[in-house]
Amino acid sequence: MPVSAVIQADIKNIYNNLKAELSAIEGSKWLISGGAGFLGGYFLDLLHYCNENVFKKPCTVFCIENFISGTPTRIQHLEGNKHFRVIRADIVKSIDLAGPFDYIVHAASIASPSFYRKYPLQTIETNVLGLKNLLELGKGENLKGFLFFSTSEIYGDPSPQFIPTPEHYNGNVSCTGPRACYDESKRLGETLAVFYHREYGLPVKTVRPFNIYGPGLKLDDKRVIPDFFSDALSKRKITVLSNGLPTRSFCYVSDAVTGFFKALLCRYDGEAFNVGNDDLEISIETLATIIAELVGGVEIEFSKSSEADYLTDNPQRRCPDLTKARSLLNYQPEINLATGLTRTLAWYKEVY
Ligand SMILES: NC(=O)c1ccc[n+]([C@@H]2O[C@H](COP(=O)([O-])OP(=O)(O)OC[C@H]3O[C@@H](n4cnc5c(N)ncnc54)[C@H](O)[C@@H]3O)[C@@H](O)[C@H]2O)c1
Q: What spacing in Å lies between the alpha carbon of 33 and ligand 1's midpoint?
């Protein structure tokens, strides 16, 4: 299956954003967990693009996937490529792989709230034990960079004076609520990552993505943007499963992936960076209205989720403070919501 045209255009855009940084990775060896997922898929595609179009010496990429939420079709176009090896395995189990690796990326997780509430223990294990397995692989092996995907959810439900939320905000998180399996295990993951840096000198960077969306986010993912598109494209009313007032700041995937690579390849070992878009903080009701207008001929209704815990501990507001990423990484998101949603819709039409 050829890779989608919309994703290909995104990859070129990411490459152009990162030209200077990417020369450093030519010929390197990578281990990426969760490579068939939404964000991990973009990592594989960018490395594939560099191998095909830029590098004289290609990168070698090992991807570990258990396909608990990712699908093989997302990375089918890499099948048979001698520089990519997809290993169907659970990152929580012991990993028997020949290192050393130059770069290790832990993108595996169960990231959609409806799914992590369904698989709470697997979520904790992947975020903590899976991470520890990868950190161990990076020890003493001349690793150049390790990227841990944390989340903006580690901030929980910030009080208003911490919106936009900077990295030094310590969070307001329940340790036993239905979202705790995700939020708290990402917090412990950050602690593990930072101590592997302090104790063993691992060049670990942590990113905290804020509501990333775009091509690759499957219609049945159950995060809010695919949920709304799923309704709209089936010509159902878009169902808002709250009073519509909570706010989010959405970041298009090509901006986010640019930020993730900038973090991985920077010299600030042991640091955590917000990655998102602070251009617009909008209510969920406004988001539904925008998607309804974009698809056309769709109405909005308010309802209650059949999932009892759907709104428990749901953060009221989300907006990143990007000062640190801007000043240390020269990160600058560029794609506004209208453009990003139009590209996302184009992908849904291409693939579904
Ligand atoms: N997309 C976002 O907006 C967002 C926001 C905050 C944080 N994150 C974090 O970024 C990372 C990537 O997110 P995503 O949106 O691509 O998620 P995703 O669910 O699309 O992809 C995760 C991938 O990991 C795989 N996986 C899960 N557990 C595994 C295991 N034990 N072993 C091997 N593979 C496993 C899944 O099959 C899936 O393909 C995750 O760590 C997530 O928590 C994402």
A: 9
Nearest CA to ligand 1 atom 7: 151
User: Hey, what are 223's tokens?
Assistant: 């995060």
What digits encode the pLDDT tens for the residues 173-183? Answer: 999 999 999 99
Query: How far is ligand 1, taken at its centre, from the CA of residue 69, in Å?
Result: 8
The answer to whether 21 and 259 have CB atoms below 8 angstroms apart is no
pTM higher than 0.85: yes
Q: Give the residue from 73, 344, 349, 347 showing the smallest Cα distance to 225.
A: 344
Q: Which helix (H) or strand (E) holds 40?
A: helix 38-53
Catalytic residue list contains 116: no
DSSP string computed for 89-104: --TTS--------SEE
Cα 119 from Cα 193, distance rounded (Å): 23
184 sits in which H/E element: helix 180-200
CATH classification number, 5-217+250-281+317-335, choose in 1.10.220.10, 1.10.3720.10, 3.40.50.720, 2.60.120.470: 3.40.50.720
Distance (Å) from CA 90 to ligand 1 centroid: 13
Confidence check: pLDDT of 12 > 50: yes
Locate 16 and state its tokens.
């152009």
Domain ranges in the chain are 5-217+250-281+317-335
For residue 2, pLDDT beyond 70: no
CA–CA separation, 169 and 43 (whole Å): 29
Q: Compute the mean pLDDT over every residue in the chain, rounded to the nearest whole number.
A: 96
